[in-house]
Request: fold
Amino acid sequence: MLLKKGLRGQATIFIIIAVLIIAGIALFFMFRSTLIGVQIPPSLEPVYNTFQTCLEEDAYAGTDILESQGGYIELPEFSPGSAYMPFSSQLDFLGNPIPYWYYVSGNNIQKEQIPSKNDMEEQLETFIEEKIRNCRFDSYYEQGFQISLNLNSEDADVNINKDSIDVSLGSDLSISKNEDSVVVGSHKISIKSEMGALYDSAREIYDYEQENLFLENYGIDTLRLYAPVDGVELTCSPLIWNGNEVFEELKTAIEANTLSIKVESGLLSLDTGDKYFISGISVPHDVRFINSRNWTSGFEVSPSEESTLISSPVGTQPGLGILGFCYVPYHFVYNLRYPVLVQVSGQTETFQFPLAIVIEGNKPREALETNAVAIEIPELCEQKNTLTEVHVFDTQLNSIDADISYECSGTKCDIGKTDSGMLRKEFPQCVNGFVIAKSQGFENGKQMYSVVGNGRTDVFLDKLHGASVQLKLDGKDYNEQATISFVSDRNSRTIAYPGQRSVNLSEGQYEIQVHMFRNSSLSIGATTAEKCIDVPQSGIGGFFGFTKEKCFNIDFPAQVVSSALAGGGKQNYYILESELERGEMEINANSLPLPTTIKQLQENYILFEDRNLGVTFR
Reply:
């Protein structure tokens, strides 16, 4: 009996082993596609190879879009710029929109929109899932193949590595013809791509810029080199710059100097002859910084009169004869806003992203610390809670579209733009504030209006007319240097004659001033003047407030006055719109003696105050 029981136990063990072997064989065939891969019949391999090629092409296409659009396939929501901040949320580069990684929105908010590597992977996954459906099998259908792809959403999985991109697609591809058939449920490819490494370098460059603002600092250096900012010149005639010409030269200089910036190490060898343009960034790729003068940008300068920068001489005014010489000090404050496109290149690929460069008051912007930081948005402008209706008309009561702002106690808030001459929006509350209307071709309008409850106000704008100007000196045409100013209670306009021979004016009362300068050989020798001041006495006398006189010498350098005031005057004149419509203004001034001494030069400025002008329109 014991023997029979042992045999029975051995039989049970053999049965269990057999069951396990059969189960293992069944599992092998069930999961053989996972264990050793699906065995595709040779007759069906060309179809599957075509599908794999489609998958690779879609992965490459999506990668190209990511690299060219700053890490985006699906662009973020578009945000337009404004008159104050010209940047939209995207840079138009050769017709291709690229989202800014950093920009300042139209309502004055600093913003970042930097995609993470995970964001890029998700966008590439969605792109592949959509594009793989378009894989064409037309030629195989004609040969009698039956092909179907069962693709559900979120079937793709993408991993971006430094030198490759791995793609896995979990969808059933069924292929059959005659007696052969196969179903492949998992598809994997790996494409060679530098995007992961390029993105890492791009982030490193961006972070370095946000910490150090090196692009803004290069911009400030360019500004001071190519535009009048601070300085003093020994001359007795005013210094005049055409603002438009200054900005055009500045745009050209920014374009060239930005392109000259390099990184410390890259794929391309650097010209180490000029260390100035080598930034402190070190990445294992070639990097280009690009700006175009044709891209949207903003340039402002103060003080200025329309498009003219003028600085007047010191030393010619009455009472300053003790100086013995003339000089012109100048100080201009600039706001610059322009884009820079950063291109990071490897062996065969380039990743690019744009960012905005912002210089305010000759200084770089504050470094960005958070995702969205307000730039001095006045509290008043955040309290728009009173519905107000504004209507804008010209002097003939025609409706005009204009940009509307509201000014209260020195704070100005942008409100919006009229539609068919009317705007109805919420204003901040303020007593004795001003509604300001600006429209192309019209003088700016300003209407006092207290916003204390819902209401309405009207603003009337005077039309601007372009008038050509011809100067005459003692009845003869004058074509040498002169400045012509039209001063009114609303604004002032100055043109530098003869380079500028036209001016835009509206009807109103003006004081017209003309300063005419002629070549001079007036030489002012070096002089020394004694200057005495009271200083506290030393010792106990100083304790009780006693002073003593201390004198010292001031040396004034020699100079040659090559251009001196030799004609001009002032005239109060009410200009009618009917006169402006004629289009031609003639101003006749009387000459002054050509000065040969500094005293005569100062006397000319005294005579100038009493000289009148002849003004006629034709």
